[in-house]
Structures are given as C-alpha cells and as structure tokens.
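Q: Fold this one first, please.
A: Sequence and structure below.
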Amino acid sequence: MKSLIELFSAFFSAFRRENQPIAESPTTPAVVGKDTAAQFISRWEGCKLTAYQDVVGVWTIGYGRTTNVHPGDTCTQEQADAWLAEEVETFRRGVRGAVLVPLNDNQLAACTSLAYNIGLAAFRGSTLLRKLNDGDYQGVADQFLVWNKAGGRVVQGLVNRRAAERDLFLKG
C-alpha cells in the first residue's frame, strides 16, 4: 500500500512541476529588467562558475554564493542564475521583515544588495537599519558608505559598491 501512495505522490508531484511556468533566470532581460536588486547584485558580484576564495578567504561560487561551497566546486550558469534568484528573494524578505518604514523599489534594492553582501544578521544590527526605521533617509544613505571593509581593511571594490548602493537608495 505504501508503494502505491509513493507512486501517486511522485506522479502528481512531477505533473505539478511540468505544468508550472518555467522561471526565467535572473540574467535574462525579462527578469533582470523586473528585478532591480538581482540586476544590481549580479553586476557587482559578477558570476564565476568555479569556486574561488573571496578577499577574506571565504569559498564562493556563482554570484557571490557562500552556502555549502567547497574547493573544486563548479556550477552551471543556470544553477548560478537560480541561486541568485533564490538568495535575492531570501534577502529581500529579510530586509522587508526588518524595515518598518515604506521603501521604493530602488531603496529596497539597495538595502537588499547590502544585506546580500554583509549578511542579514549584520544588516539587522546596523545603524543603517536603525536610522531607516527612524525615518532618517539621508542618514541611511550616508551609512551605506560605512560598510567598506573586508577582513578589517578598506577594499576599493566595496567603496565603489557602497557608493553605487547609496546612489541607488537616493534615486527616486
């Protein structure tokens, strides 16, 4: 009896997947054009299909993915695109859950990019979030610039990214 249930379950599960729309990858123009955060993050992270160590030695792959990445790992472009879409949505939900004031799409994208790069725990504990929830939008914009270090050292790439996040946040 159990095998019959498993068979039906597998059948209906496969049927549901086949009848769902195929999600476009975030690097396709349709998705990138709709998702400001994914577009922004993909530009700054770049995409590497072979695992590498970032500037502080964390194993990374795809568009900055660090979860379960080991030396020698590889992925396809499709995997990297899917991971980006999944992780951007996770970080966007985390940002939305922490922010108590209204954000426009650019402000949400800038905060999502920052959280994607520094982690949700750091974002939730940041002065940037406190200022945001106090409604100090100019103070928030200036706080992006504070997050310019990796391993205790100022990194020019982070200086540039934070300036771009700040500009995006201030864009109407």
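Q: Good. Now the second chain.
A: Here it is, same layout.
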Amino acid sequence: MVSLQFSNKVDLPKIMYSVMSLNFFTILTLISFFLTMILSLFFLANKRGFILENKILAILLLIFNLQIFYSFTTSTFAFQYFLDWHKPIFLIRQTSFLIGPLIYFYVNSFLKKKNIFNYRTSIHFLPFTLAVIFLLVFYKGVDRFIIWESIIDLNDTLLILTHNLIYIVLSLLSMKSTTISFKGFYKSILISYHNTWLQILLAAFIVIWIVNLNSLAVFMILRRPGWCAYTASIYALTAFLFINTIMFFLLLKPDVYYIIAKYKNNKLTEPDKSEYMQKLNSYMETHKPFLNPEITLESLANEISVNPRILSQIINETFKKNFKSFILEYRIKESMKILADSKHSKLTVLEILYQVGFNSKSAFNNQFKLFTNLTPLEYRSRSIN
C-alpha cells in the first residue's frame, strides 16, 4: 500500500512533472471543462427560446463544471501538496447540493407546470447554505484538513447522494405524464418532441448520480486515497460523454431543445384554442390536405380561415411538433391504412407514397420505419396476413 506523505513544502519539479504528464482521462477532463464552459456561456447569452430556462441551464452547467474541477483537483498528484487548498476545494464540493433543485426547477419551468420562483424557493437551497455555514465554522477549529482523511467527506457524500436522489424522484414525478418508452426515444428525437430534451438531461443526471454512488462504494471498500484517480477517470469519461451528447443533439436537432418563445405575446384563450383545434382536426380528416405534396403552413391556414401564426402556435403547443412533423405523421398514417387494405394490394409502394404526398421513396421509407419499426412491405405483409 502506497503511503502519501504531505508537506507544506512545495516540490515544484515534481508538481511540474505531474502537471505535464497528462494521461488520457486528464485530457478528457480538460476538454469537458472547456466545452461545459462554452455551453454555459451559450445558454446564458442565447436569446432564442425561453430566457428563464436558458439561464437556469447555464447556471446548472456552471455548477457541473465546478464538480468537474473538484474531481480533477482531488485526484491530481500536484494538488495533494497544497494542503491549504483542500478547505476551499471542499467548499466547492457543496455546490452539489444545488444540482438537484436546479434540475427540478428547470424541468418544471420547461414544462410550464408551475411558478417555480416564489417565497418557498429558498427552502430548496437550505441544505447548501447549511453545509457552507457548517464547514466555515468547522474550519475555524481545524488547522490541517485533508478531504479524504476526514469523516466529514463520507457524511457529506452520503447527504449529497440522498439529497440528489430526492430531486431525481421529484423531477421524474413532474415528467410522468410526458415520458415516453425507451423504444420510442430515438424516434422522438428525429421528429423533435420537445420533452425528449428533458429526458436526455434527466437521464444524464441519473448516470452522474450512479457514478458518484459507485465512487463512494469504491472508497468505502478500499479506503485508499490513491483510488481517487480511478474515481476521477470514470467521472471525466462521464462528463465528456454528457457534454458531447448535449452538443450532438443541439447540432443534429435543435428543435429537441428549443420551444420557440415567439408565441409568448399571443394570448390565445382555451375556448379559442379548442375551437381552432376542432376546425383543424375536422378539416384534416375530411379533406386530407396533407395528400398535397406542395402543402404549406400558409396554404393550410388559408383553407381553414385561421391566421398562420395562430395555426403554428396550436400545432407547436398542442401536438409538441413543428408543422412538417405534423403533416408527416398524417401521411404515414394514411399510407398505413392503404397498405393494410387488401383492396389496394396491387398498388406498389411507389404509387402509395406519391398518393399520400411524398416525393421521395427514401424519405418515405425512412419516415415509415421511424413510426412503425417496419418497412412498408413488411407492414403490408403482416397486416394483410
């Protein structure tokens, strides 16, 4: 077992060697730290979408960056020689108490379920405040403080894990009416269901919680500070995958995140919305305008005598889709009816796709499999048989 000798003396050559000897996970950590900072600034400065949600997410990513920094500093050889740094570094650790509440606020604010900022909001930040106050008082009576040698580290980790688990459950309860199956997860991304963004974020939070639980288990079993490097490796990899997943989805499908705020000044009442919805559904079922390959939002709005902006708002807010996805779903459902009808068994797939409004066979096949997990021919064979 390797014993660690601590000294207030700074061994600069050894520190420089340690810093310069960057391993794979250290590089991942540095990249993750940089990308997280960029993402945080992006959401903080971004004016697209809802400003409040952007700011909450920006703060959440900044705190997540602090956790990456904490994991890095407590696992790097050089920082073990800076004993005076362990006190402020452990204070940084307490920001973990803020992650759970911010996730919970973000989910509820994004879903517009409730007014999250009121006189009760401060209660959610009480554990963080109490933890900081306790440590400041505790530090006054301690000259030498090493994080992994103190029993406070274990108790603090247990409290953080329990605290965040509570907010995972609360966030899941808030999303219970919007969650989808894992089977339809990829499908929901491609057709831009806005709630998928919340699922991605919450799933990542759960994975990070599991990683932290794993780290605690390793330390409890081995009781070796040297294994903090193992903890940092896993955390660095998780952070790297998490941040790159967010950036991947923002580039691949921005609509997964954005709920456009262009309707915030449109005060559409529920009776009016219900009336427009009835008119839209009736027209779609009776006249089937989606069969026209040249259909546009403006042309459909003109046909049902509704302002295009109002029609766009209804489709976005009611169906959680953009206009293109809304029309595509009608076309696919219509093609499914034709394929399942033995009367149309002589029609080729090419004839059917043109009949329902598609212009491309590859686009039709991709969308059809996305909705049914079957090719058109497979679906026809199963339905008719």
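Q: Anything worth noting on the second one?
A: The radius of gyration is 27 Å.
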